[in-house]
Amino acid sequence: MLFGPAEEYVDDDSLRDALRELSSRIAILPISLLRPHENVDPDLVKELAEDIKRCGLLRKPIVVDSKTLIIIDGHHRVEALKRLGCRRIPCLLVNYRSPKIAVLSWSRGEPLSKDLVLNAGLRGELLPPKTTRHIIILHGRTCHISEIQFNVNIPYKELMHEDSHESYPNFRPARE
Questions:
Q1: Which domain holds residue 123?
Q2: Rounded-to-integer distance, Cα 123 and Cα 36, Å
Q3: In what order do the strands lie in the sheet with 132-138?
């Protein structure tokens, strides 16, 4: 099911280093295996589903903790794909326990505990939409975790199948 180390799919040296430090891998996983930690805004899901359908592609993978399969970033993409009938999604699997990843409150920017996220995901007691904002520390600067989500540009219709990744012969994460 794994396509391999994520750093193999990017050309940027600093991004490659960050992906390596986070022990990241790219994979297409069944959506049913993933665990959300936040609820979603239905209006954003609808808008995103329309955008994905219009362009025909899912541009970026979601970020998922490799140990628990808790969604770190990408809840709205998951729900949009579900709405479109998809059963699988490209995931960037990371070591969430890495000190390079931190979590802040969206509203106030205050630090939050990773345990809050993990407990919400493991117990199914979801936080309100956009409660958490995950950041990474790259070369002494902080940025949103979306900066490590490289383009995969996979046709969303290919994600409707239940099959293993061998059913996606055309899937190759796009190089930045």
A1: 2-162
A2: 10
A3: 111-112, 101-105, 132-138, 141-144
